[in-house]
Structures are given as C-alpha cells and as structure tokens.
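Tokens for chain A. Residues wanted.
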C-alpha cells in the first residue's frame, strides 16, 4: 500500500482558437490610427467582458473527498502550469474544441515523468482516439467514479481505464465546494447545475449524446444549501449551467421559488417556451433571473425540422421573447444561419426578427459540426464537410468562424458575403449602445457583451474574407487543370 499524502492536479485547457477567452485577440490586423484606437478601446472592454467562470466539471471532481489525497485546480486561462511541484496524478479535461492543446500538454507532462489521466467530452465520445495520449482514461460522467480513481491512486493500483456504466444519480447529494478556486480570476465563482440531460435531439448538439435524453435532477434542498454556502464566499451573480433550465417546469418552479428569499441575481439557458408559462416566468423574475440564453437557431421552420429541432415553433417565438423581456429578463438570442433549408432571405428575416423582439444580445453563428454529432456524420456522408472527417482538429470552435461545410441551398461563394454583410449591419457600436439602453436589466453587462461582439465579428469577417480568397484560388487551380 502506498503511504503519504498524494497530490492530484486537475487542469482546464482552453481552446487555442480564442473561444475560451480573448488571450489571442490582440493579434488582429489593424488599419489606420482610428481603427487602431477603436480596437484598443474594445480590447480593454473585452478584458472586462470575458464573463469567465470556473470549469464546473473540475469543481465537482475537486470536491470528491478521499483520505490521503489532496486536489488542486489549474486553470490555464489565468495560471501557468506548476511544473515545480511533484504531482502524483494530473487530470486533463479534454474539450472537443481543445483536443490538440490538451494532447500536447499531456505529451509534455508524460515526457517529464508525470502520470496523466484524460477525461471529459472528447474522451467519452472518442476513447479510441485518446488511449495513446494518456496513462489513464475516464470515460463518461465522472462524478461517482472519480472516487475509485483516487482510491486506486492511493493504493498504487491505477487502472488504464475507468468507464461509467450508468449515468450518475444526481439526487444522491454530492456537495460541490470551491475551496480549490482562485476567486479573483473569475467574473463569478457561483456556478451551479441543477439538472443534467436533454429531452431534445437537435442533431448539431452533443448534450444528449453525452448526458442522455432523460433529465436527471438534483435534490432541491441540496441545491438550496449549495447556493447558501456559495454566498458565504462570493455574492456575485449565479450562473445556472443547466442546458435547459426550464426543461422540467414543475421542478424549476419549485426550485426557484425556494431561492426567492436569497435575493440573488442569476442567468441561465432556457427555451422560449418559458414565455408561455406566466407563472414560471414570474417565479424566475422574482428569484433574480437577469438574463437567459435561448437557442432560436433558424427562423425557417423547415430548417429547424431538418436538424431535429421541434420544440421552438417559429410562429410563437416573437410573443414568447417579448413576454420574457416584459418580465424584466434580458434575452440572449442565439441564431444559426446556414442550416439545411435556409435560403439567402434568412439574413433579412433575422434583422426583422431582432427589431420585432428587441433581443438584448444577438449571436448569429455559423453551424459548427461537432465530431460525434448526427449533423457531423451526415455532412461527412454527403461530402459537404470542408475538412477530412477524421481530422478533428480542423473542426475548431473559433471566433474566426471560418466555414467548415457547404450549405445545402446557398452556394458557399454567395453565403459568405451574405453572412459577413449581416454581421456588419447587426454588430455596431451604435447598436450596442441602443440595445443596452433598452435592456430591461443588467445594462452594463449587455453593453459589454454587445461591444465584445462588435470586435469578435470583425475578426470573423477577416477570416471569412481570407477563406473566400482561398476558395477562389482553389477554384482557379481546378479550372486550369
């Protein structure tokens, strides 16, 4: 049996494309003194607008108590890797958008003699691609099995693989602590998850692939105690990280009714269906809900259906969003332009929709085919991906937002100019100020988020312009041959 205290380090590796923070954004091209001054101002705003929150998955694992084991978290967004310590085990959470940097870090650590355990979404979906890159794999939601890993480390019997056979029972009451976090690094450390799993089957999403279709619930009393304990160290805003916080309306109403006396402010993700449940909407408002991210995706019902998104009928969206905002809750509306049944007219439809609803923060995204999802496999089978389906590093989540596939009904040479013209019209400093002035609450955050997007979509247009040039050059070469 091994003796002495064992030290475990849990590492968050950010994507190298800038999606996890603006560390790479200072490299953007500039033209002229005025543009340079504007970029400088926006860069300072962006530093304040990161809204960085700690990785909840590592907080959960770091809260697992095993005698003889001490755990620490290293968030590489803010810290250098502590190579000066002798770690007995280093755990790396491999996010789908950060596979390459995670594997590179693992290789470096293993060369120096450290033992590395890999887990997270990518490892769970593609374990066979990860075996060569770590000493140990943890496959699946690790809430319960992590204690087995720590016990085996303590007794010098680590296995090469730990596979979760059944999804964890969230009602068992595992408490989450944040003693291992550096509070000052984050916009807030009050991150809470109350449910896991998604009842929907959108083919561009991997939540139901990872966490199942059944919504699993934490015990409401446990969540309330956690909120109360979190407030002792950090009284800032709460992020409820449920993929759909109103998926189970009865549970959501009971939970947030219990949270009303705590006078917190919180944000989360929901479907616009919330706007049709006035009682739940009132409870959300009274419990301190300041903003909700809602996935609108396409305004063409045919496109949503083509991607198995059936739960947000387009004809009800405007009234639902207006109701949410009238309840004093800001709406972040997320669109995907370029889904399978979208036509060029969708650009104008999005602008009209923004005017009709008064959405406080719009996000107009390109489809990012995530390896392991239905849409990725389908686009690959149809020959519409722009990269090799086996080269997962190419399918990155970047704010440069280059195209990764060919839209079905719009030629890519037409689609890119349409998309860039749309973002140039929607994301301006003037629009950012106007949206903040009209926001029902959190006006400072709404302003910073919109200014953040002014800069980010500018980067997107530059990358897409380069891609257009490359596509034209490739086409010219092909015609010459």
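Reply:
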């Amino acid at each position: 049996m091994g003796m002495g205290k064992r030290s475990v380090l849990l590492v968050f590796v950010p994507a190298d494309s800038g999606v996890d923070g603006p560390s790479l954004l200072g490299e953007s091209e500039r033209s002229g003194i005025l543009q340079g001054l504007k970029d400088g101002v926006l860069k300072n705003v962006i530093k304040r607008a990161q809204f960085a929150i700690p990785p909840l998955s590592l907080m959960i694992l770091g809260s697992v108590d095993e005698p003889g084991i001490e755990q620490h978290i290293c968030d590489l967004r803010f810290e250098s890797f502590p190579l000066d310590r002798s770690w007995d085990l280093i755990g790396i959470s491999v996010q789908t958008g950060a596979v390459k940097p995670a594997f590179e870090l693992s290789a470096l650590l293993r060369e120096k003699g450290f033992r590395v355990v890999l887990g997270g979404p990518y490892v769970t979906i593609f374990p066979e691609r990860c075996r060569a890159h770590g000493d140990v794999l943890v496959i699946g939601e690790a809430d319960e099995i992590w204690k087995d890993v720590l016990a085996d480390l303590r007794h010098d019997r680590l296995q090469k693989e730990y596979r979760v056979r059944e999804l964890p029972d969230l009602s068992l009451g595992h408490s989450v602590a944040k003693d291992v976090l550096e509070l000052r690094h984050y916009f807030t450390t009050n991150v809470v998850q109350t449910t896991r799993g998604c009842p929907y089957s959108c083919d561009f999403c991997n939540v139901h692939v990872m966490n199942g279709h059944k919504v699993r619930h934490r015990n409401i009393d446990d969540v309330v105690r956690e909120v109360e304990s979190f407030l002792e160290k950090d009284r800032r805003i709460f992020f409820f990280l449920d993929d759909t916080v109103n998926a189970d309306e009865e549970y959501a109403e009971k939970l947030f009714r219990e949270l009303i006396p705590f006078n917190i402010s919180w944000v989360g993700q929901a479907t616009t269906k919330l706007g049709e449940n006035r009682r739940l909407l009132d409870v959300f408002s009274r419990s301190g809900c300041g903003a909700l991210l809602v996935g609108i995706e396409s305004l063409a019902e045919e496109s949503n259906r083509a991607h198995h998104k059936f739960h947000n009928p387009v004809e009800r969206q405007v009234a639902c969003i207006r109701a949410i905002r009238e309840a004093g809750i800001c709406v972040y509306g997320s669109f995907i332009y370029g889904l399978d049944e979208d036509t060029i007219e969708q650009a104008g439809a999005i602008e009209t929709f923004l005017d009709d609803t008064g959405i406080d923060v719009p996000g107009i995204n390109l489809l990012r085919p995530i390896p392991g999802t239905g849409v990725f496999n389908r686009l690959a089978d149809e020959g519409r991906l722009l990269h090799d389906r086996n080269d997962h590093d190419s399918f990155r989540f970047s704010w440069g937002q280059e195209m990764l596939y060919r839209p079905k009904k719009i030629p890519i040479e037409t689609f890119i100019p349409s998309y860039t013209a749309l973002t140039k019209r929607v994301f301006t400093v003037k629009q950012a100020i106007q949206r903040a002035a009209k926001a029902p609450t959190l006006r400072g955050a709404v302003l910073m988020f919109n200014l953040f997007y002014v800069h980010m979509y500018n980067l997107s247009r530059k990358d897409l312009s380069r891609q257009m040039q490359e596509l034209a050059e490739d086409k010219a070469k092909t015609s010459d041959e």
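The mean pLDDT is 88. The first strand starts at residue 6 and ends at 12.
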